[in-house]
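Summary of Year 1 activities. Much of the first year was spent building the evaluation harness for sequence design. The harness presents a backbone, in tokenized form, and records the residue chosen at every position. We chose the following record to illustrate the format because it has been used consistently in internal testing since the harness was completed.
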């Protein structure tokens, strides 16, 4: 996908996303930094009036990093914790998601981040749209259910090439919602989820 290109037509149901993720084999990725922090995020899906919706949060402006950014529930792994357990725990802590109401589906490709030096594994799961979720910690000030169809509107998606140190470049993906902008690691994860579901060939696994 490139700026201005239309996303392919097709109803984005949870069933369709689940099939695509369940068949996906994640690409191994080495941690870029020796001190990388192992982390997991919960990519939670539910069927809504407009098809599949994904749960996002807005980080509190009181935080020292990534303040006000749109993100998935998630955080660092505790000792001897799996990525799945960490994603479930963080979602429960941040948005009060009842873990008994969640069905784990699979994983998307891991990615490294530059600023937080994190190695992030996106864990995909489903739940019912009427499961009560809300900001349950001072780290979160808003919870959003965003239809995937909204992410594929012609005026929503754009990408930019950013120059980094040592001559490296990074493609950044942006989703301009009605009242929020999604970008960074969250934008990259959403882009892979959409490409995977719609059968679009993407770039090599992200190394940043």
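For this record, the design step produced the sequence shown next.
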């Amino acid at each position: 996908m490139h700026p201005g290109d239309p996303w392919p037509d097709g109803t984005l149901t949870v069933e369709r996303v689940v099939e695509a993720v369940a068949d996906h084999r994640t690409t191994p990725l080495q941690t870029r930094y020796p001190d990388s922090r192992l982390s997991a995020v919960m990519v939670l899906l539910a069927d809504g009036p407009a098809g599949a919706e994904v749960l996002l949060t807005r980080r509190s402006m009181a935080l020292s990093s990534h303040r006000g950014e749109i993100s998935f529930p998630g955080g660092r792994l505790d000792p001897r914790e799996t990525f799945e357990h960490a994603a479930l725990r963080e979602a429960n802590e941040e948005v009060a998601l009842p873990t008994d109401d969640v069905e784990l589906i699979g994983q998307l490709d891991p990615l490294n981040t530059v600023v937080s030096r994190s190695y992030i594994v996106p864990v995909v799961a489903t739940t019912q749209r009427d499961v009560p979720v809300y900001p349950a910690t001072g780290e979160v000030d808003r919870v959003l259910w965003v239809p995937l169809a909204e992410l594929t509107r012609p005026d929503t998606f754009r990408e930019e090439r950013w120059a980094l140190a040592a001559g490296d470049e990074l493609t950044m993906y942006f989703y301009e919602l009605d009242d929020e902008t999604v970008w960074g690691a969250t934008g990259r994860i959403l882009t892979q989820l959409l490409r995977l579901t719609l059968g679009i060939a993407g770039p090599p696994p992200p190394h940043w």
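The mean pLDDT is 86. Quantitative recovery figures across the full test set are reported in Table 2.
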